[in-house]
Amino acid sequence: MRKPRHNQGRPASGITRGTGAAALLAAAGLLITAVPAQAATPPPAPPVEVVPGEDTATPALVEGLHEPVDAKAAPADAARGHLAAKESRYRIAEPRRDLTPVRTVKRGADETVRLQQKHRGVPVLGGQYVVRMESSGGKRVVTGTSGKYFTGLTTGTEATVAEDVAVRRAVSATAARLGNSRLTKADAIRKEGEKSQKAQALTGTAGGLVVIPRGEGVLARHVTVRGTNPVTGEPVLEEVYVDARSGFPVLQYSGIKSVTGPKAASARPAAAGTATAGAAADEPAAPAARGSGLRLDGGKVDLELSFDAASGRYGMTDHARMADTSKNTLSTWDASSQDVGDVSGQWPSGIKVFESPTAEFGKAATEAGAVDAHWAAGQVYDYYKKQHGRNGLDGRGSTVNSLVGVTLFGGSYVNAFWDGQKMVYGSGDEEFKPLSADLDVVGHEMTHGVVENTANLVYAGQSGALNEAVADYFGNAIDVTASGRSMDDPDAGLIGEDLCRTKSARECALRDLDDGATTSKNFLGVTFGTDNGGVHLNSAIFSGALWDMRQDLGGELADRIVYKALSEYMTPLDGFTEGRNAVLAAAKDLGVTAKQQNVVKRSFSAHGIVPGWEDALGVDTDQLLGKLNISGTGVQAGGGWWTASQSNDDGSEPYSVYAGRADGSGNPKLISPNDGRFHVYPATDGKTVVWAAYGTTSLDILSRPLAGGPIKKLYTSTSDISGLRVENGVVVFESFGIFGDRHVAYLRPGDARPTYADGGSFFLATALPSISQGRIAYAKLYPGETDYLLGVEVLDLKTGTKTLTGQLGEPQSLGQTGVNGKHVFWLTDDNLNDTGQMGVRRADLDGRNVYDIAPEAKPRALHAVDLTVSEDAVTVSSQTPDTQWRNETLSKLWQLTTDGSRLERVSCNRGEQISPAAVSGRQVVWLDGTTGFTDLVTRTRPAGLCG
Prior knowledge:
Blueprint: H1 20-25, E1 49-51, E2 61-63, E3 67-69, H2 75-85, H3 87-90, H4 95-98, E4 99-107, E5 110-119, E6 122-136, E7 139-147, H5 163-179, E8 183-184, E9 202-212, E10 218-228, E11 235-243, E12 249-254, E13 257-258, E14 288-294, E15 300-308, E16 313-315, E17 317-318, E18 330-334, H6 340-343, E19 352-353, E20 355-356, H7 363-367, H8 370-388, E21 400-406, E22 416-418, E23 423-426, H9 439-452, H10 461-483, E24 494-495, H11 505-508, E25 511-512, H12 519-522, H13 531-534, H14 539-553, H15 555-568, H16 576-589, H17 594-606, E26 622-625, E27 635-638, E28 641-646, E29 656-661, E30 669-670, E31 678-684, E32 688-694, E33 699-705, E34 712-717, E35 721-727, E36 730-736, E37 742-747, E38 755-756, E39 765-772, E40 775-783, E41 788-796, E42 802-804, E43 813-819, E44 823-829, E45 839-844, E46 851-854, E47 864-869, E48 873-878, E49 892-897, E50 903-905, E51 913-918, E52 924-928, E53 935-939
Parallel strand pairs: 18-21, 21-23
Antiparallel strand pairs: 1-2, 2-7, 3-7, 4-5, 5-6, 6-7, 8-43, 9-10, 10-11, 11-12, 13-22, 14-15, 15-16, 16-20, 17-18, 18-19, 22-23, 24-25, 26-53, 27-28, 28-29, 29-30, 31-32, 32-33, 33-34, 35-36, 36-37, 37-38, 39-40, 40-41, 41-42, 43-44, 44-45, 45-46, 47-48, 48-49, 49-50, 51-52, 52-53
Helix pairs in contact: 8-9, 9-10, 10-14, 10-15, 14-15, 14-17, 15-16, 16-17
InterPro entries: FTP_domain (IPR011096), Peptidase_M4 (IPR023612), Peptidase_M4/M1_CTD_sf (IPR027268), Peptidase_M4_C_domain (IPR001570), Peptidase_M4_domain (IPR013856), Zinc_Metalloprotease_M4 (IPR050728)
Protein name: Zn-dependent metalloprotease
Domain Peptidase M4: 291-452
């Protein structure tokens, strides 16, 4: 049985907020909101300073130590011995049992030992502790520690959900995140002999048990889902954590690290065991040579090459830089014949390094971006080697591979990414050069490799934004240093400013580290489904602070401070506050003056990164339920009531269903039982609440009257469901088959089994249902004479009549449906244009008089992802695609009159607004991310145009 609920006081896993772990794990109480030490010139024997963690007995940061440890022991053993000897300080009872070595980095007399926490033998997500030591004259002392060790974990480690069930549910959750808000022609499952069967675009690989450090701990099965986005064709890498006792996905985020974010196509890290670095490892090394080539900006650069005497050709394989590391090289490969889906996560067959008959590479290598990529990779390698003593991205001199010129479906691909083992650069397009054309982009992507092999900042929420910030900082620092540009230059902070063919630097830039972004004005709370929880949206807040510091302290010192903070202080779940403390501590450790320490503090304060900064965010809406601590379960409304799922204050307990009055009166009611299952996807008509309860092998659809009474089990399903709706005892939902088929089903009062609107035909698909006044509307995919067709169908439950609405054009994609007493509405995409705009279409209930109340082709048309309908209004959630993330690109709510004569913003809130549900009239409830929490809020009328 779960503990009684407390006043909700932690960030949601649905909308990110707070520290890195709070944003990622919905567990702010587990991590550190540390108070920085006062700036002072470090005395010869500094006093010990201990920064406590919150809701853990282990300190977040300990500075000023000079405590002897065993000089002859292995570094990890010496570090754990220190923690054991100081149990009263660290409260780690069995360091040798519960902390396993990750890596040890030695630099001169300094040793940095990273240790991974385990709970009863199971790894703890983000649980990492660092011990810093110094050796001199045959003696070794500990100088400090930092990180996150979660002392409150008590959960058992026996899983009751089978591994195959967890994999299936992880794949289903990923499919839902990627494409289930639309029904497209790609959803067709072909008959045998008719083209090909629908490909299984996604596959899951079990990665073992993990303890998520929420409260007492949540035991989860980690599943990595790879494949291709069924809607866009882009590569997918999804990290999914499935509750090991109920089977519900409790944490989910993308592992793709790209320079622009998922607005452009992106790619996934390499699969475990894929050895891209060894592509030519068994071949004899060709003699080193030197050549040259022209960069895309026209500048001539020297290139380290190899020469193959047998063919008489020069190749872009640099042996010289890694001459002391055996066969490892820095190589640049021609991937212009490869689709991004073929190179991400694997080494594509048939590619070769760029070659030339002479040592001077010509126009083809220049235009492909190969000269830029090869030269820039050498510059980044040299920077880390010369400035920080780091041999390669992993610190051990591993091969550095760059793949250049990849395409998307044979066309333009405007992005670049690090996939865990190599850099991949897109071909560019008419406006953008190949993505290797700017040194700061190359530096950014290669720095992701450095981060991965040091602090390994989890790429989601604030820790992901910190990851991006560090990549931006070092990428730009390398570029500015190489170009000789002054830090006072107004364009010095621009990232990607040299990528464009016609636009100015400032118009072209992806981000500006000198844009003055602050937490109070610019931090945007979003779901992990949007930019991985704001990794690009919010990164400039932290990178801007680092850039300010570089402007005031100079590049050499600032770079040393940031590198030391990254490599010796930061840990995987750090957020902005922990990152600030790491930089301050690293500066102090380097012996900066009091004045310089104040410069570091001032840089962070100017960007609002101070303890408690999250409390400065506000909204223009009425809150109905705060800090839901949920992810992806949605909200519904009807009959003057709302219903939503909510977890407890630390997010460690399974979700429960609550319901309340939409006017805010009275107290919310707990509807679901306290039985250890996850109770999700609730819906109400103001009389009854229905929802799904996830168990170890199946899920139940349950119902309960709002007035009170027993809970009734309506149906048990082994397939996943979504889109639950209820009206006068009729329950509607969408069911997902194991082959990717989708079907709308409904249960009448007393039905033992559901009825499928499409008859359950394997070769038909129905999806995205709505119900009103005895009619069910849904999107339908069905075979035509020569191809599959899309339409919207209305089922009259009283007569059994099905009416397919008339068509305007030929829809390629349909979104959510909505129905009221007079009309049926839906989202439609006829053009599949690059902008992603969708029309809002309306028809009479008999299928006639079809027209667009918001045309798809209209200027400033909506980029809709969701829709909800009352008798008076149609409310749409619309997200504007862009190559740059900002508030204006996030999902906002827009409301139209049912004839489309007026269009207004529902709220002027910042951040993300999702899952709208119409109450009546013009009132809507939704999930709002402005404060960084997932709050359930409402407005009774639109806010206007919001300027």
